[in-house]
């Protein structure tokens, strides 16, 4: 699952409008236009959709913008501020949290847990609604910091089903 897919599914699940997406990016520290956001929310053309005689060059695909991990994390930081309000940093604390070096799916779970004020039980219930059973210790491993001995990388299965569960919960 690409970062573009994550943004598309998250936007749908939480019913976020284009102008709110621009505002969330701004809160995260990135200036975006509505056109740029819309390009991020279109699926890039797939190389496999073309015949061999078609000269497909992914660089020519100007209809979409690929989202990297840094951009996704800044968007999720902005979503936290958008949903919960700006928190004043304590003395000696940086104004913005440092970017992590973790897989995108782990970042997604952690940041959405904060932004939507979810508990671990809530996340387990959301996954249960779409038929995925996860234990509290497995979830804890997904929410750990990279480098911790019990850290586990979050696979696409959990991330995709978590976003699907959010859609069920927030859009009915």
Question: Can you walk me through this structure?
Answer:
- The protein has 172 residues and is mainly alpha-helical.
- Helix content is 53%, strand content 0%.
- The radius of gyration is 17 Å and the shape is globular.
- The protein starts with a helix and ends with a helix.
Classify the secondary structure makeup into a structural class: mainly alpha
Computed over alpha carbons, the radius of gyration is 17 Å
Order of helices and strands: HHHHHHHH
Mean pLDDT over the full residue set: 88
* Poorly predicted tracts of residues: 56-61
Largest sheet composition: none
Rounded to the nearest angstrom, the distance between the terminal CA atoms is 24 Å
Number of strands: 0
List keywords for this structure.
172 residues; 8 helices; single chain; mainly alpha
Structure at a glance:
Helix content is 53%, strand content 0%. With 172 residues, it is an all-alpha fold.
Outline the secondary-structure elements.
Blueprint: H1 3-14, H2 18-28, H3 34-40, H4 69-84, H5 104-115, H6 120-129, H7 136-143, H8 156-171
